[in-house]
Amino acid sequence: MAHYWQEIEALTLRWVRRLSREKFSMLFTLVQPMLFWLIFFGNLFQRAADVQVTQAPNYISFLAAGVVVMTVLNNGLAGGVDLLFDKENGFLERLMSAPIHRSSVILSRFIFVMTITSLQVLVILGIAFLFGVHPATGLPGVAMILLIGMLFGVGLTAISMAMAFSVKSHGDFFSVLGFLSLPMIFLSSALVPLTAMPTWMSVLAQFNPMTWAIDAVRPLILTNWSDALPHVGMAIVVMLIFDALCLYGGAKAFRRAMG
Amino acid sequence: MDRTIAIDVNRLCKSYDGHKAVDDLSFQVYAGEIFGLLGPNGAGKSTTLRTLITLLHPTSGTATVLGHDTVREADLVRTLFGYVPQERAIDRFLTGREHLELLGALYHLTKEEAAKRIAELLKLVELEEHADRPAKTYSGGMKRKLDIACGLLPNPKILFLDEPTLGLDVQSRLRIWDYIRMLKARGMTVVMTTNYLDEADQLCDRLAIIDCGKVKTIGSPAELKVALGGDSVSLTIKETARLGALASAIKGQPAIRTVNATATGLDIRVESAEKALPAILEAANKLDCRLDFIDYHRPRLDDVFIAHTGRSLKDAAPAEETT
Ligand SMILES: Nc1ncnc2c1ncn2[C@@H]1O[C@H](COP(=O)(O)OP(=O)(O)OP(=O)(O)O)[C@@H](O)[C@H]1O
Ligand SMILES: [Mg+2]
Question: Between A and B, how many CB-CB pairs are < 8 A?
Fold first, then answer.
């Protein structure tokens, strides 16, 4: 157990070091979602979006939940990229030829991605706060948002890692990534509520776990606990099922790649 | 020398989508020796090493390291060796010292043990001054040295080196040969791959020549050369169109063993150069072939290679990669 922890600590430290040395890319990953989605998109649609439809005091407060979950989505789906590079340049082989637990590298990556995602979610909620979006359920609500984000993020990161272990080239990885992420966003309640969608889209959106996560986060920000709790409960169930499926697939891909 | 068997590879096969990368490969490595796997690109050397480091499961056959099976006892086997991969497996963003610290933790050393070992290793590979710079600022040779230091960090009984000197300058190569000899002197067993004949010849106690996933021959460089017997004559001629005729004219002569055509001449194995040379010259004269160059020598490792694979390593291997 002490060994396990020593491995995970050292491997997580490596991810932190890599990030801290890529200051430019760090800035972009941190700033991009809030700048692009929350500030530009949110303000752009402030008047175009119909308050009757969104059922929110203004579009930014409606969008905040979507941006939070979108951040989880993007971080999660990109979570395997570093492992992909490690696989391609042989570093992963070096790590895995050491007498470490087979799960240490992966676990360290989960810990790192979840931590960075949570920090980003907090920053987004902070920026939204500056635009007048005050989470209705207070700090406990924020904690619940983080929990939902992490539950969703685990599955997404597992998908990303599974892809990293199975693709033949990193070109494939990034094409699949691009192919996954935009439909996930548009076929969800991130930008408009399901009621405002064409029927076929809203039907598809109901099969998108992202919709369930957003529908739980949104009342935590906009209304109150009694409104939010049923959604939160459902979201947790959906996320657990989603995670189980993704982790199963991820474990299979990993075992195939690492012998 | 100690004849304990350190590594036993038994009828190993590994296929990728039906293509046999390693095909019924068997060899043994004795404790304390430097063992070489010599072969052209794509011969299956790295694949064999990846099996030994437990990261590939054989399609069939087995491999054991110090008596432990690389599949069933993979966890144990991983504590026994150090590994230097063929590609420079370096994280550009980490410093040299951070690489070694990371591995120190993965081999479960305490902070003090690790610090001591890291200081020794940095000194050994002469990277002390550069230890705290990110690896992206290292030259190719410095990266290779860091790679080797990483392989040595666990202070293993067995070291696997995949093409340790690929793309290095002459001085760095010689220095790395010296390290490897020193490691052997300390009692380490070294298994290395190479496609340099001189490296195999000068460094390895024993070697296996591998081609197309199969072992062609095994022995010490001296044994392999003696086993060929006789001398080698190589010649090149101007009228390459007449090579075939010349080859068949020479083939029948006494004292000639085998004749191999190359692109511009012939490689001839003979009983003794003194007896064979006159016959060869006479045959060339008769056919009106003007000799560009002729040379005879005791068997060299490239002759061994040619004799066992039917081609020269230089022909088999595409232009040397430098990455
Ligand atoms: N992951 C893989 N998938 C498919 N084929 C592979 C894979 N790895 C190796 N091969 C094939 O197996 C054969 C042996 O490869 P290997 O890397 O062992 O050669 P090598 O002797 O190390 O060559 P080199 O001197 O170029 O390093 C090659 O034909 C190669 O194309
Ligand atoms: Mg190789």
Answer: 77
